[in-house]
Amino acid sequence: MIVLGCILMASSLKAQDDNQYHRNFVGITLSELPFQDYRLSFEHRISADYGFRIELGYKPATRYFTDATIIDLGLNATGWCYRNTANWYYISLGYRYYTNKKKTLYLSPELFYKRMTADHIIFSWGLQNSETSINAFELQSMTMNCIGLNLLVGKHVRIRFCKAFHAGFDIFTGVSLREKFIHTINYGYIEIHHNHDDGVGTVSIPESDNPVKENTELFMPMLQFGVVFYCSWR
After folding, report:
1. Which of 105, 225, 114 is nearest to 176 (CA)?
2. What is the DSSP letter of 70?
3. Is residue 205 over pLDDT 60?
4. Residue 165 gets which letter from DSSP?
5. CA 128, CA 144: separation in Å to the nearest integer?
6. Within its chain, how far is the Cα of 181 from the centroid?
7. Percent helix, strand, coil in the chain (nearest 5)?
8. Which of 116, 120, 179 is nearest to 144 (CA)?
9. Contact 203, 192 (CB under 8 A)
10. Can you give the pTM of this predicted structure?
């Protein structure tokens, strides 16, 4: 009887240990770092099956010179875009349902909001004849508000350090449905004619008292994929 009691007690303790789970998860989204988009997340599990998650993201101002040959300012050569992107903010709220026995595979709907502002100078050049060229410059600014829904499936790949502390990777994929509201302001346009032997010189972008404003609304379904490195505790 004593032996049987010990076996039953050991089985009970093992079952309790198997049912234990971590309630708190803090992570950083690795898949967004190459885009200088820094996202931190926190998840709280209210049970082994259910949890809630919040993610905050920010992209600092970045200046870069990029080829944008599809831009056409009325000249027949090519174009470049010098862009200054700033104030990229992101927030998402998600609900997670863990489906498998180990409670590492989940389904998750997420609501998110993203706001981005950008200024850019479009530059294009073209040949007028064999001796002279035309350079065209245009100054624009853009504000985008984006709301959407992510429908995700993911899995935790755990690295166990001890019962009280884990680390690992949260790998997910799914579909993102987003509505974009874009406000664009065109401040001015100028053309400069010069000989091939002359430098372009300093370009002054004109600013108009009555800039051209345009509002655009876009619905964009997209595929979603990401990797989050996380640490968790009870």
Report:
1. 225
2. T
3. no
4. E
5. 37
6. 16
7. 10, 70, 20
8. 116
9. yes
10. 0.74
